[in-house]
Amino acid sequence: MRFLASLLTTSLGLAVEAAHRTSGDAVNNTRTSHVAFKCGPKTANVTCVNRYGSLLPPSFSRDPDPAVPYTGTTVPEDSSWLLVQGADFVLYDHKRGLELLGSAPKIYRGLVPTLNVIHEAPVFVPGLNKLFVQQDGPPGGMSIMQLDLNHDPPVKSWVQTDPPIYQPTGGLYNPKDGMIYYAVHGNNASLPNGLKQHAGLARVDPRTLKAEWLVNNYYGFNFAGPNDLVIDPVGDIWFTDTDYAYVIGVSDSPKQLQLATWRYRPSTGQVQVMDTSLSYPNGIQFSRDCKRLFIADSGLESYSPIPTRGAGDFYNYPLYIQFNSTGARNIYAWDVARTGSDGKHPVINNKRVIFQSLEGAPDGLKVAANGYLVVAGGLAPGVDIIDDLGNQIARIQTSHPVENIQWSGHDLKTIWLVGIGGITKVEFDLAGPDLSKFYQC
User: Which end of the chain, N or C, is less packed with Cβ atoms under 10 Å?
Assistant: First the structure.
């Protein structure tokens, strides 16, 4: 009994001590374990973050400037934060994060020499095993970068469509007709050889490079600059419209309409506005079950009459853009229904925010084979991987801002991250979808 009493007293004392320690942690806003630790395969630099990094030592700080990345947070009282800053992959949901990495994740930087300009609209054409990438101006151009993936490292060349298309900024491959569809934000009446162009949608045969325009106005109004696009289950093309073209100098026309998300029906030529609620609609995708629409809002960016080159002359050209750190940097979801006499007319409702970017503003986004969303960071050097409810799973960290992403390879387990001043290749187990079987509805 005396031993039992002693044991109970000791246990009670330890419990009380633990309770005081826990209480003290809560009161002092401190934590007793490191924020991060090394984890995962040795083929890459992988770091796991404890409890989503939601409790840091009180000395932490972060500059609200949108150009400051998540890794720009300072945590002087916890040296493990250095692991996050130096990681290739950062995992928040450890189980699902390790699953998507697989046994041998790898990241390749600097495979493709690039200028310090925006790279956008990556499109993989499986039959050619080539990746088409647009180098966004200014001064702008009518040539498209072509990466021949039949070689390692890929062989870079430049191609021009016939007729030339000035400054696409969003692209996709449609396996139903074997064509590349482009959202084109270049708008200029004084291009070489007398070419004139309004912003709109076009498609290109990647084998012959023959180009065809589909739409370039809404009842006589210019689009500000179609940014990204997606084809829905009934064949309609949805696209977001922003004035990035004007702010980076590849359009000589300011916006004439509210920035919006539009739907174009190729069978009839009809153009219909679908949403005007976002500040800067950007990346756009449908869920594989056809029930939800996802759109990124880069609303912390807006037009500025005063040009800037960014800190340290970050860009090689002036941008007429300003940043508001408290502006929208979100991904929204809508429910999608079909109505009308043919059951094909889309109705979107129940808008809700599902994700706010850790840094920068969300740009291009893609849906993986398993339904996860892979979100380009825009201003930020990396991408976020979230589930379809917006739960953060992992991050890929690069040495350059990422504007858009695209899978390639026979197993679609290679992903290319393209952006400002760089193109990065990643190999892991998060497969892209077979586009010929994308929709499962």
Answer: N
